Amino acid sequence: MERQRPPLLIADGDIPTTHIVARLLRESFGDVEVRTAERLFGTETAHRHVLVSRLCHPQYRWLPGYLASRGVRYAYFLDDNFWELSEAVDIHLARFYMHSSVRQTLDEFIARAAICVVMSSRFARYIEARFPGVPTHSLVGGFDVARVRALSAAPCEPKRPGEIRIGYPTSRRSNVAPLLVPVIEEIARRHPDQVRFEFVGWAPDALATHRSVSLHPHIPDYDRFLAYKLSRQWDIGIAPLVGESFESYKTNVKYREYGGCRVAGVYSDVLPYSDTVVHGVTGLLAENHPDAWIDALEGLIVDEQLRARIATRAYADVSENLNQQVSAAQLKRLLTAPAGLPA
Hints:
This protein is of the alpha/beta class. It has two domains: 8-142 and 323-336, Glycogen Phosphorylase B (Rossmann fold), CATH 3.40.50; 145-321, Rossmann fold (3-Layer(aba) Sandwich), CATH 3.40.50. It has 13 helices and twelve strands. It has helices at 16-29, 63-69, 91-97, 100-111, 121-130, 145-151, 177-190, 222-232, 245-248, 253-260, 290-302, 304-321, 324-336, and strands spanning 8-11, 33-36, 50-53, 74-77, 115-118, 136-138, 164-169, 195-200, 213-216, 236-239, 264-268, 284-286. The strands form two sheets. It has a six-stranded parallel beta sheet with strand order 2-1-3-4-5-6, with helices on both faces. A six-stranded parallel beta sheet has the order 9-8-7-10-11-12, with helices on both faces. Helix 1 (16-29) packs across helix 13 (324-336) and helix 7 (177-190) packs across helix 11 (290-302).
């Protein structure tokens, strides 16, 4: 019998989601072959578990039928509810995912999948209702706590005495700018020489030249990003969400990352954070109004002990309940179960 090959991950691009899923598969099976869509030629699919991640570009609509014709069963992974993505969230991405050919391709990938894997129980129920014949499973969102421990010994960027750094790594989020701009301006007015806001990947245009704000470029490699985040020694992390339907199906990734890095976080009091964060214990939940966010940030800025307690408890929660090892073991069970993806 031919030796089983490592799992094959077919991804829609070299994006953070691809890196996250690859790490889970690598931890579960010891190795993984990652192929982005444009590098499919010559890929061997026999005797291995196949997982397709987020792929729905119409030019690859042939792939589900091709795999079926060769008896290849695959799992389909999706971490965003593209059917609910609106222009209010991201005008550029929404126009792509709202296109009929993209949606038809996405539907076909899921309809032909042996199983669908998501990272939100709410999203799993949505998929089940839309595709009643496709078994859908929700993974526990995981974070690589062990990697943080390994990187913690790396050199850090020195801080001035009393300096407070507030971090926010994100892609374009123009819908949160009306909330963030007055909050940051007021906090900076109160603490002009103490607080610095550090954005990674995107910042509101209105803050581009603000003396208390810096914008760092997006870091596509996740290990490099994690090392960079740890080197900045953030005291506080922020995770604003306006509460759009699309966002309510997202994972609690910011909580996992802040908690796993021992950073006290402020989160919008909407899904998914309202289901995850214990207010005052593992983070602070703030209503989406500038005054509420200003109060939450002010409380953490002036109370070092509160920051430390929240950071410690969030780290313990992520380490015990949201560790990458938990997610990896769950994914392996799904792919190797009798009803999963036998190679």
